[in-house]
Every structure is written in structure tokens, then in C-alpha cells.
Amino acid sequence: MDYNEAYKKLEKYGQLHVLKYYDELTDAEKEELLKQIEETDMEVLVSTAGKGGSNAKGKITPLSVMTLSEIESRKDEFTKAGIEAIKAGKVGAVLLAGGMGTRLGSDEPKGMYNIGLTKEVYIFERLIDNLMDVVNLTGAWIHLFVMTSDKNHEATTAFFKEKDYFGYNPDYITFFMQDMAPATDYEGKVYMEAKNRISTSPNGNGGWFLSMMKWGVADKVREAGIEWLNVFAVDNVLQRIADPCFVGAAILTGSDVGSKVVCKNAPDEKIGVMCLEDGKPSIVEYYELDDEMMNAKDDQGNPAYNYGVILNYLFREKALEEIAAKKLPLHIVEKKIPYIDADGNAVKPEEPNGYKYEQLVLDMIHELDSCLPYEVKRNYEFAPIKNRTGIDSVESARKLCQENGIEL
Ligand code: UTP
Prior knowledge:
Helix content: 25-40%
CATH topology of the largest domain: Spore Coat Polysaccharide Biosynthesis Protein SpsA, Chain A
Strand content: 15-25%
Number of helices: 15
Number of domains: 2
Strand order of the largest sheet: 4-3-2-9-13-10-18
CATH architecture of the largest domain: Alpha-Beta Complex
Bound molecules: uridine 5'-triphosphate
CATH superfamily of the largest domain: Spore Coat Polysaccharide Biosynthesis Protein SpsA, Chain A
Number of strands: 18
């Protein structure tokens, strides 16, 4: 893209200030900036005019969950079907590790965080150990696809290599990168990170399958004969990955997607809630949950929306191909965005100062006709690390790991 084309593109989106320092830049810096302008998707800025409008909801009704007792009564049958599928190479796993983990506040990728007390125990290591349990049980390696972003790709891949993939077979680990979206101030003006760089951030965890397609990784999935992809977050250090019982339950119930859920510990717990929206499966984020939904009761007098998602989904690969053609809604999230001020000095804000634009994996569920919400024991499978201390933190996750006999 040359200067004139870049100018036209920025003019169209009302972002000409991006070229403010252009004349001061070296030739190489000019080239970098023009390339970034070309590659940055500015449509997000248009489709979100009027901020927050994309999060409107339809008619919400309860969705029944496969509870622990039902799972227990069919455990052997489910587990057998799951093990068979895993042995046949039909199950892969996708680690979503492209996020910035700003709440944890580490400069390194979240998975590189050491939660150990007497020895080193990295978040990535815990996840690989969990997956190894299934490899050991089934005798089959499970393809692991790791999504990174422009901000952490180098560090993540180098770390896995340095740690010898924590004992996993590197032939079964594939890295791919997600796309970036511009970050803006509250008026929708793109921030500059440097005189020759727009502030961008990873575009949310909803684009993972599109990114797999873009990187040719989805072809690899098809060629390998993988029929199910278990997508999971980097921060839940207790979660079971490619869990045979969960896999079997999704297969035997003919589901397009399964979602692990936990019984909420309080009506206002900060966790997305499973429900039906206009008759289709859906997840209402905790910040969108109103009092009516929080206090609604079912026929037996139990809370009607009592199960929250833990970001562990099992998608049928064919269903993902269908979803890929659809456009997911955009979420506008208030965040702290580093930028350069009017004098060109770098600023690292202490408080949120603008918006990031994200698509979310939870919106993929609503594109499908059915979903199997599958309950898991929260103290055994849910130890998310979002913060250093307090709720959903390194501290709380350590405690839960220890309760489960994991040495730290
Ligand atoms: P979070 O919602 O916790 O976001 O991501 P985050 O950006 O990592 O953390 P904060 O909000 O800045 O503290 C849930 C999961 O989705 C992944 C994260 O890596 C995590 O596994 N994710 C999030 C991506 O892979 N890409 C994204 O753009 C955002």
C-alpha cells in the first residue's frame, strides 16, 4: 500500500491522525506503518458506531443441563465412546493463548506464569500435564493447536521449545496466530503505540477457527481426520482437556457442540450463563445478566439460570465450517491501552482509557441449533487465573491445585 492509498483508507474511517508523524519517519518506519495500515481491519470501527449496540439479546429461556448425576449414571458408556474416538485420532485440542492477560499484569504470555511454590510449575505445564493424563490413558497422542497473537507468538513458541514441550510430542503441537484489531479512545479514534505503529490488540478469542483456516491449520485438522476440537482457555489450570467422558457424551447425544458448565456459587458470580436465546443455545455474559435472570426460578423452585460456562467447548469440526461463513457480533471492551501522547511520549495508563474490539468464542454457540451443557465438579475442574490475588487468582488456583493433590 502506498502513501496515497493509506491516506484514502484512513480518510474513509476518520483516522488521518495516524499519519501525523509520517514525515519524521525513516524509510523503513514509513514502510512498516503503511503495511500496518493495509493489514488493520478498520471495519470494526464502523460497525460499532454507537458503542455497545451489538450486544442486544433476544428472548431468553432456560436450557437444560446434563447434570453430574446423569453423567455418573452413563459414565462407562460415555468414556468408552470417547476413548474409542481419541484412539482413532478423531479428537484435537485448541489452546486459546492469544489474550493479553492484562489483569494478571505480567509482561510475559499468561501461560509462562509460574504458579509453583516449592518448584517451577508453569500454567502451560499444568495444561500439558492434564492433557498427558488422556494420552497416557488412551495411548494416543492428541493434536494440540495453540493460538497465539502478534504480541506473544515469539515468546510462547520459544518457551515451549526451551521447556522441551513439557514432555509432549512436538510433532503433535502446532502454533498459529490470531488477527489483531485497532484499539481506540472513547471517541473511536485509533491510538498510536509509537510514531510508526497503531495500537492494536488481539481481536478476541472468537476468531480462532477462521485463523486456523487462514494459517492452513484447518486443512491439517481435516487431513488428520479430526472430527472434534476441544477449545479451552489458557487460564484454568485444573481443566480436563479432551476428557473422554465429555467427548463420548457429545458423540452419543449427537451434539454439534458441548460446553462444560459448573453450578454457579452465587447468583451474581462473574461467569457467563448458559440459556436459550430465541430458542437457540446462547451464553449471557455476567455483565449482561439482569436481576430478572439472576433471580428467575424453574418449576421446582431452583434457580433457572444456574450454570456457568468455563470456556471449555467441544465443537464438531463440520459445525465449525458452517459457523465460519457467519459473522459473529463484535464486543466492545474497555481496557488500558498504551499510547503516545500529543508530544510523542509513550504512556502506559493505570486506568482504562479506551476500547478494544473483540469477537468471542461464546457467540459461536448461538450459531448452532443445539448444545450439550455438561456439568463438571467445580472444585475439581475449575481454577481460573485472571488476577494475582482474590477471586479467580493465582492464590485461589494454588489452593484448588493443592486440594486436588497437585504438588506446587
Ligand atoms: P480473557 O477473557 O481472560 O482475556 O481470555 P485476556 O485478554 O487473556 O485477559 P485480560 O482480560 O486482559 O486480563 C479468555 C481466554 O481467551 C484467550 C485468552 O488467552 C484466554 O485463554 N484469548 C482472549 C485469546 O486467545 N485471544 C484474545 O484476543 C482474547
